[in-house]
């Protein structure tokens, strides 16, 4: 990298277009969008933002479902030197208001289905609402009618994205990600990609760091790769698109596997599907194996990362997957597993996972205390319990804050959850701790069952007793219609802990 502008995301996107030329790049709801078409729209939209008064460093919130305009607006904002601030469209009004206020956003861009929500939330805030097409907001087409804007120079240290964490344990924090950090993470993901995959399907929200990284990684791909984009994930629509476009690769969070396994997969030709990446939360081994059994052409590869590391820490090496592991650390992420004193532990021992390197965030937005707590001596402490094996493969055991201490024994919820979903009638499971005066914390399980199952709580307890130790099995079980999830599709343990006992 010879200059500070060489790794700005805008420069990286321009270099990709120069290298690969014009081509079908993105399919969305009935048609292909060409690479030059998308780039030209971004150049004009950047001019529209500048004309609107958006300046370098300004934050602009994107509250949009997946569509080509998400990519166009993001590229336009980076071209104008502004900061993309994605917000999941599943956020509540209060959560969206917090993002707008905390980020100091000057504008918010939305799509018609969310225009009422955004205008209602932004009514008392000094932000311009773009999109919606209902006469109350500035049309996105008006921005796109401006003259093309040249690139506002940005260096690797400049802020590119302000992305708010899920906030399951309190108010969400803005994670400041630089051009250089995202660029390093995208390059690492591209390096780990399977070379014979040329058609991918993006069904993760682009407002999630995982979905965002998939887009940035495309800047580094050496060959033309085409992307099929879903507005949002639905299992039946996913299966139809795989068949229609002969999709070879996609990326899921674990809850998506569960929903797909409820579909008649054998009735569809999914033989083109070679690789399914999983991230965002631990994937039970049984779920991965069941998916591979029913889609024999596909290999499931689990990776690991978090918002604070530009989404990526480790990935499975091509051709050397180790099921149950999240792979090996990628370039740009130095990883250690350490004890409470900060000393690295030997292979096989458990400890906290910590990371440093160019993929690391700049810090939490306007929160030096939280940053200092999370980043110590240059290392970001993930809060995850993990272990390395003798060959350098990383395993994520659980979240430190989720560990249940029962009678002095550490109980990792994931261990119990994996044992529960091994039951053929249990489709999903979540385990939390409940304060108990006798044992300190009691293990409580919530499970959903497959259609037609008659499983009772006592049956679940007996199954667990056969598969985990006496210290771990749940004494209290609830069969529920659905496991609550956060906006980024992780188990909402905070909501489960708040549930009254029945």
Describe this structure in words.
- Helix content is 30%, strand content 24%.
- The protein is an alpha/beta fold.
- A seven-stranded mixed sheet has the order 2-1-10-9-11-12-13. Strands 16, 17, 19, 20 and 21 form a five-stranded antiparallel sheet that branches. The chain has a four-stranded parallel sheet with strand order 4-3-5-6, sandwiched between helices.
- Helix 2 (35-52) crosses helix 3, helix 4 (93-103) packs across helix 5 (115-122) and helix 10 (254-261) crosses helix 11 (285-294).
- The longest helix has 18 residues, at 35-52.
- The protein is globular, with a radius of gyration of 23 Å.
Give the spatial strand order of the biggest sheet: 2-1-10-9-11-12-13
CATH class identity of the domain at 4-177: Alpha Beta
Structural class: alpha/beta
Oligomer: single chain
Question: Rg from C-alpha positions?
Answer: 23 Å
Q: Give the overall average pLDDT.
A: 92
CATH architecture of the domain at 4-177: 3-Layer(aba) Sandwich
Q: Helix amount, in percent? A: 25-40%
Biggest pleated-sheet summary: 7 strands, mixed
CATH homologous superfamily descriptor of the domain at 4-177: ANL, N-terminal domain
Count the E strands. 26
